[in-house]
Design the sequence.
């Protein structure tokens, strides 16, 4: 069996990496922090022109008809570039959710718009009361009772909430359900919502790999240049072993993330377990990378001007997105020790601190 | 109109470069490669001609199997066809040998316009574009920053020393070597990359092109004897003390060197 990515998948990933290197510089990321929306419609248009939002959309609707296995490497690059545009909600979660629901009119209306970058979709999910990017969304997918709704954004009341990452725009939402927006009920809604949650968690885990890799790269560069006692600090075991351990954690997590991408793509029976394993291990690697990078950078790592915190903040917020580590551990525990795939929220009550 | 673009795949700008064991080139194993940056502007210029009218864009490269990726990227950007000269005898060919191979491809293709980059990121030689033009007996312009095409000719703007610009008109067929920054290079789209799989890539050998007896490393006129990384100097001396003391020391050093 061939476990390597194909040449096409590698080329897709490198194309997106080149694009993000050119179009999503740190200056761009930081400039968006200062803007009201923290988003760039011009960037999203260019990103759509190279085809990223349409990756999981069938060719009949203007997409590329690809799978999560093709997309996962792209999400790693999104994390490496600290790109905060709504790739997860719109392209990785909403597009396949709309594709898979039975409302064909909804697919015909929205999928072409998503593929061309004309539409942004925000998605609410059960592990958090916070929804990202409602402020720029055209459509919001959210649950009420036993049904799932695709609500025009103008019909949703959003209340902005704070985030420790200036690139994140989070809101709590309220809406009055209407039958005209209902896209699934009962088991169908449960199935779509569960898949959406797994897709979102997988996309975050892949981004965590990218953020972790970037933090390692920055740490290696810094410790190779910064000298103490006449030699680079990276030559001291106390420093280099810490950074080497990050690489071990990254590669351990990478195998989980790639396995989870395969499981989501084929809707494997172990899908949810694989996704939780991926989210836990990628989260641990990214958080550890954030902590260690700060240590090896020393005081300069605490400064606003040093770029380290761009990825540290991403590591922190991605860990909380689409099921924080504790939630995924609980889900994993349920599967391992009770031999049941979870069907409920483990008594976890999302709330705002 | 047929437009040919010559591409070279070079080590990625972020690749760590080490000299190989015999000291004549870099160690190419396990490093990433990319399209020569100058050539990306040449591709873009060709694709703009295609966008503007009826042109077929053929990208050509010489090298081992890894070169396929560069050609696929160019096809993903919008080129129509690719020619890959994949022949062990062509590896390590000098500038003239490489020019002979490219000229043979251009002759076979019947190219009306040939675009190249001004030089290659790895050897900075700038030798091949005029050689190809000479071998094909066609006019050429180098350092081109803008082009304007008409039915029978191409008017180009080229960079001269001191920031001056020269405007030249070349009858077709001709060769144009593009300077970086001449245009805004487009990205390959993901859709383009997937469609590129269906676009033809003709693989040629030197024998197919009729240059086996004149091109390739066995026929090199120039050989690389040695490449090396410049030795790090350790002659820097940091003067210490108050400003007055440092100035006194500095003046003394300058006098020692006989510069005052």
Sequence:
């Amino acid at each position: 069996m061939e476990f390597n990515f194909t040449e096409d998948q590698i080329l897709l990933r490198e194309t997106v990496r080149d694009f993000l290197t050119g179009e999503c510089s740190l200056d761009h990321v930081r400039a968006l922090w200062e803007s009201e929306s923290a988003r760039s419609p011009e960037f999203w248009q260019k990103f759509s022109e190279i085809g990223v939002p349409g990756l999981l959309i069938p060719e009949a609707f203007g997409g590329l008809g690809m799978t999560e296995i093709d997309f996962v490497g792209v999400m790693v690059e999104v994390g490496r570039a600290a790109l905060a545009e709504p790739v997860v909600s719109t392209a990785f979660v909403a597009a396949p959710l709309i594709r898979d629901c039975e409302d064909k009119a909804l697919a015909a209306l929205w999928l072409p718009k998503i593929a061309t970058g004309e539409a942004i979709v925000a998605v609410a999910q059960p592990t958090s009361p916070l929804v990202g990017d409602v402020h720029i969304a055209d459509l919001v997918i959210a649950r009420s009772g036993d049904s799932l709704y695709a609500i025009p954004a103008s019909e949703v009341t959003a209340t902005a909430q704070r985030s420790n990452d200036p690139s994140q725009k989070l809101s709590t939402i309220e809406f009055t359900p209407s039958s005209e927006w209902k896209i699934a009920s009962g088991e169908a809604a449960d199935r779509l919502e569960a898949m959406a949650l797994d897709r979102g968690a997988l996309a975050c885990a892949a981004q965590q790999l990218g953020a972790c890799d970037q933090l390692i790269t920055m740490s290696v560069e810094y410790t190779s240049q910064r000298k103490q006692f006449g030699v680079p600090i990276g030559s001291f075991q106390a420093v280099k072993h810490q950074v080497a351990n990050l690489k071990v954690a990254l590669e351990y997590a990478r195998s989980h993330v790639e396995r989870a991408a395969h499981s989501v793509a084929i809707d494997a029976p172990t899908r949810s377990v694989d996704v939780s394993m991926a989210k836990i291990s990628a989260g641990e690697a990214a958080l550890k990378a954030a902590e260690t990078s700060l240590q090896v950078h020393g005081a300069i790592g605490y400064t606003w001007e040093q770029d380290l915190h761009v990825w540290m903040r991403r590591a922190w917020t991605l860990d909380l997105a689409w099921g924080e580590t504790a939630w995924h551990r609980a889900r994993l525990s349920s599967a391992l020790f009770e031999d049941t795939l979870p069907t409920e929220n483990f008594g976890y009550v999302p709330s705002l601190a | 109109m047929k437009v040919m673009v010559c591409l070279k795949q070079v080590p990625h700008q972020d690749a760590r470069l080490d000299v190989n064991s015999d000291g004549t080139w870099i160690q190419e194993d396990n490093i990433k490669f990319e399209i020569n940056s100058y050539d990306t502007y040449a591709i873009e210029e060709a694709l703009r001609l295609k966008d503007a009218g009826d042109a077929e864009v053929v990208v050509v490269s010489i090298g081992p199997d890894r070169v396929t990726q560069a050609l696929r990227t160019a096809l993903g950007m919008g080129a129509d066809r690719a020619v890959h000269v994949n022949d062990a005898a062509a590896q390590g060919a000098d500038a003239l040998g490489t020019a002979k191979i490219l000229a043979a491809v251009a002759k076979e293709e019947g190219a009306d316009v040939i675009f190249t980059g001004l030089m290659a990121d790895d050897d900075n030689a700038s030798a091949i574009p005029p050689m190809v033009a000479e071998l094909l007996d066609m006019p050429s312009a180098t350092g081109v920053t803008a082009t304007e095409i008409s039915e029978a000719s191409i008017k180009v703007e080229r960079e001269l020393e001191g920031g001056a610009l020269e405007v030249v008109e070349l009858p077709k067929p001709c060769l144009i070597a593009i300077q970086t920054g001449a245009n805004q290079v487009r990205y390959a789209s993901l859709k383009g990359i997937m469609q590129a799989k269906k676009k033809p890539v003709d693989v040629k050998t030197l024998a197919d092109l009729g240059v086996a007896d004149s091109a390739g490393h066995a026929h090199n006129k120039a050989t690389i004897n040695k490449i090396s990384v410049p030795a790090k100097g350790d002659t820097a001396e940091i003067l210490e003390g108050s400003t007055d003391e440092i100035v006194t020391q500095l003046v003394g050093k300058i006098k020692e060197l006989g510069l005052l």
Confidence is low (pLDDT under 50) at residues 345-353 of chain A. Chain A touches chain B through 16 residues (CB under 8 Å).
